[in-house]
């Protein structure tokens, strides 16, 4: 079962070469903990070597991705190196079987773990400087040894709260953001390191882990410094999951102290010292359950088992993603075409194929074949029905037309004498003015469809067209010119639709209310007003108006008789007429009943006829645009492209590849090969799964 993790490590290497590590999210063990919690000692205990930088304050300032490779794995081959490159302080008598390799220094082997420590410090300072700043850019290190279990771990900066020295004021926020970036990955296994001589309730590592893993499904607690607890106390309650329960539990460890490091106590001797501590402890040694939770070796085995099961579960998804990436790369390679010189006839055939494919794509998009969102022709239909039609229905018959303008127009239409009937010329003048207002929305609809066709043209470009920048530029020019040529007659026809309506006001239209019906409607509307006015007269009065009474009085008293008094005789009075004003308005004079009736009749006629014209306009504008613009462009596009672009003298110029196409083709071929290797590595798991099922 331990063969699974080396397979995953090889897979990650292959994908790392094409920059796809984060996409595939291979499971890793992420180590988090506060400063001086013993993170470095835990990692060095698992590796069996002292190689991490040490010091005061924040030492780890970049993520360290540490891959452990067991050189005793069946089928693994390694070359024996000369002993002169071996670390003189090596903990092992083996020659040439332990070394480290950095991804940023491919091919170079570090046999001295002291040199590995120096290189980690140097690479950290290279990117972050010496002011104790941090960076999310990881350092990738592989340790090859027969003494390690196959694990992949990520060491992160220790959690700190107070900046010291030259550290930035927001160092705590920077570190927390980095930690969350790594541990938020749902495939990450969190190794939360806490010192045993502190209260786990105050553990920064457990707090951070709980923020992204509230149920503890992927968090392992590690209690370090178990040998430094106060006499008479132990960590048994925490290790037995009684204090702060975690689904995966806790492991207790004993670290090398500073005194041990100063005395050059080797990692291997430190692990032996740790094993003796737990074996001789009066509490841990007497409980088998506790002993299964104590020691760095136990921690390493548990981590290995967890990671192997985890990788086995996620590899199917990894394979699907690699397959998808392989498909994308293959499609891109097909779009980039086959390199090499071609004859003029071959280039001409390729050119015709591209032009035909563009025209076909353009027509297909207009016809509409998308499933997710409105696309192509559906968007044009949306413009017609949901934008143009809906907006035009909000245009009222009397928008921009006041009652005073209607009254004034009627009065002007009567001329020098009072008309017996409502003058038709007033209706004619007013309805033409309202109809003319429809032209602007119609032209705007043409503009919207024109812009949509430009959008469709951009979506119709075959991927292969990107290889030929000159052809792409000329093709766009031809399509743009065709659209512009078709747009002008379309706009003119929409303008003519309005002119057609203005040329002849068809009062015989079956949907038009007509003059007689308008008068009848107004009469029925005002028939109830007369009784009301009669009932308002004083008691005993007749329905005659004061004017009629005066007329009757003058008629029956023609000889100047008056009931009360007589008019004295005198010289006649000279009457002077006022001067005619320069401008005359009716706003100061309230309309008479007759004028109100005439206004109602005219407005009824305007409303009825405007609705007739608006309905026709809503129907005719989309038809006009489809005939003069959309369908004409769709039908003429291929012939236009061929006639303008397929010329023997220009074929070689148009079919000249872009300068970067060759490099892009090479990159795609390399990525295709790497992804093919990745698929082979994933398929190696198939035999393992089959074997495990048989067992």
UniProtKB/TrEMBL annotation:
One Gene Ontology MF term: microtubule binding
SUPFAM superfamilies: P-loop containing nucleoside triphosphate hydrolases
Key words, A-Z: GTP-binding, Nucleotide-binding
Domain of life where this protein originates: Eukaryota
Pfam family, one: Dynamin_M
Biased composition (Polar residues): 540-550
Start and end residues of each GED domain: 599-690
InterPro entries cross-referenced by the UniProt entry: Dynamin, Dynamin_GTPase, Dynamin_GTPase_CS, Dynamin_N, Dynamin_stalk, G_DYNAMIN_dom, GED, GED_dom
Keyword Hydrolase carried by entry: no
Any one cellular-component term (Gene Ontology): cytoplasm
Dynamin-type G domain ranges (all copies): 23-316
Annotated segments matching region Disordered: 75-96, 531-550
Record-stated family: Belongs to the TRAFAC class dynamin-like GTPase superfamily. Dynamin/Fzo/YdjA family.
The protein, known as: Dynamin GTPase
UniProt organism field: Fragilariopsis cylindrus CCMP1102
